[in-house]
UniProtKB/TrEMBL annotation:
Pfam families: Sulfotransfer_1 (PF00685). It comes from Paralvinella palmiformis. PANTHER family: CARBOHYDRATE SULFOTRANSFERASE 15. One of its GO terms (biological process) is hexose biosynthetic process. One of its GO terms (molecular function) is N-acetylgalactosamine 4-sulfate 6-O-sulfotransferase activity. It comes from the Eukaryota. InterPro entries: CS_Sulfotransferase, P-loop_NTPase, Sulfotransferase_dom. Residues 26-251 form the Sulfotransferase domain. This is Sulfotransferase domain-containing protein.
Length: 306
């Protein structure tokens, strides 16, 4: 935040009397543990894509609905839209200084900034409180669970992980018999720092069909570029070019950026643990019907997982 203040002071010293403010040009709303940090880093190497001060502002999910409790017991008020835009002030200043002049003398700012918070697409624990809305891949679940286990400093054992997965899937299936899938999913996203609850949220977060369907109820499909993480990791350069084309940005990637993108190696700090085949089968059988619905929803067979 101090950097933002310093930028504003420089504005004042230049006698601008104003500051450029930028709303995100795009949102990277990939699911948790699907490579969003890797893609975020790759995009930051593109000259026209300005890296924001923070990757995950969390404005569109939990922080907008409740006060943020600090470690000392105090609380911060709910952030406003102006607070949200403040997180892009440093990027906005870079965009202001980055100009291109055309042959006819027109000056424009080609830079853009994005919101790259993966939880935006699925983490809506307060969704049912919004008046208008009253009425995987299986190894990703383990990766997500390991990530929180690493932060909590405990080891995930394969057999314990399997029993936890089995218990939560049974709980969801029981809920599905009593309520709608949508109701079970969103009520199951109650925020908690308990590792077991994070596993439940990991499994729920793998129901891609449920969340993407919600977004397509509001926004036209043409405004989305859907990409599988497997395809991205198989060819990062081609994936980045496809994204730039979708965003109508310059697709010419400098050689230095190409090398950095091709040599990316984002390491997951979570502990490594074996994955029981019985757990894999359990998750595949549970997720398969939802993946089939996703294929129908997107009308694209590439979303079939085998």
């Amino acid at each position: 935040m101090q950097k933002i203040i310093d930028k504003r002071r420089r504005h004042n010293s230049e006698n601008l009397g104003w500051r450029m403010r930028c709303f995100p040009y795009f949102f990277l709303i990939g699911f948790t543990k699907c490579g969003t940090t890797d893609l975020f880093t790759a995009l930051s190497y593109i000259p026209d894509v300005i890296r924001p001060l923070t990757k995950e502002p969390r404005f569109w999910q939990k922080f907008r609905f409740t006060e943020h409790i600090k470690k000392d017991g105090g609380s911060l008020p709910r952030p406003t839209l102006s607070d949200y835009l403040d997180t892009f002030d440093e990027a906005a200043e870079q965009i202001r200084q980055y100009t291109i002049k055309t042959e006819d003398g027109f000056v424009y700012h080609p830079g853009v900034v994005g919101d790259l918070d993966p939880k935006t697409i699925w983490c809506y624990p307060n969704w049912i409180s919004i008046k208008a809305n009253k009425n995987t891949y299986e190894p990703r679940v383990l990766s997500h669970y390991q990530f929180f286990a690493h932060k909590k400093k405990f080891t995930v054992q394969p057999d314990e992980f399997h029993h936890s997965v089995e218990r939560f899937i049974l709980g969801l299936q029981t809920c599905f018999k009593k309520k709608s899938i949508r109701s079970c999913v969103y009520q199951g996203l109650v925020y908690s720092k308990e590792a077991t609850t994070n596993l439940k949220r990991s499994i729920i977060g793998s129901l891609y069909y449920v969340f993407i369907k919600e977004w397509l109820r509001v926004f036209p499909k043409e405004q989305f570029l859907f990409m599988k993480s497997e395809d991205y990791f198989n060819n990062r350069t081609a994936a980045v070019v496809e994204i730039l084309d979708f965003l109508k940005l310059n697709k010419s990637i400098p050689d230095v950026a190409l090398i950095r993108i091709q040599n990316l190696n984002i390491v997951n700090p979570s502990a490594k643990v074996g994955f029981l085949e019985i757990t894999r089968t359990l998750l595949q059988n549970f997720l398969q019907p939802f993946n089939e619905k996703l294929v129908t929803l997107l009308r694209n067979d590439q979303w079939v997982w085998h």
